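Fold this sequence, please.
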Amino acid sequence: MKKITRRNKILIVVAVMAMAIFIAGKAATMSIEKNFENLSVEDIKDVDLSTLEDGEYKGSYKVFPIDVELVITVSDHEIDNVQITKHQNGQGKDAEILVQKVVEAQSLDVDTVSGATYSSLVILKAMENALVK
């Protein structure tokens, strides 16, 4: 019987660890893809602004790895301001332009930002959560 050298033991351990890392990475990627798939089929409910009282409305939404918290200021049944207080976004920083689009349109029914679609959807869901109680 051939003796396993220390070098071979190290190579076996490294190979097993590499395989475990690969499998864990693949599982994480599949989980993120499933989260995004579910997000992309969710509807964003528009808001009847005439029913809203003046004030600040806090909302949040999270779909790993994107996490948004925001505050919407409503005055005279209009959205005056949207302040994003937290946006863990990966590469979706460009989606923050949506707050201007929502204020201009006075509606959550705005187009998402190309290249930042998932961050756009998470921002819109956070706004929906803030305004639809």
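The chain has a mean pLDDT of 85. Residues 6-41 form the longest helix (36 residues).
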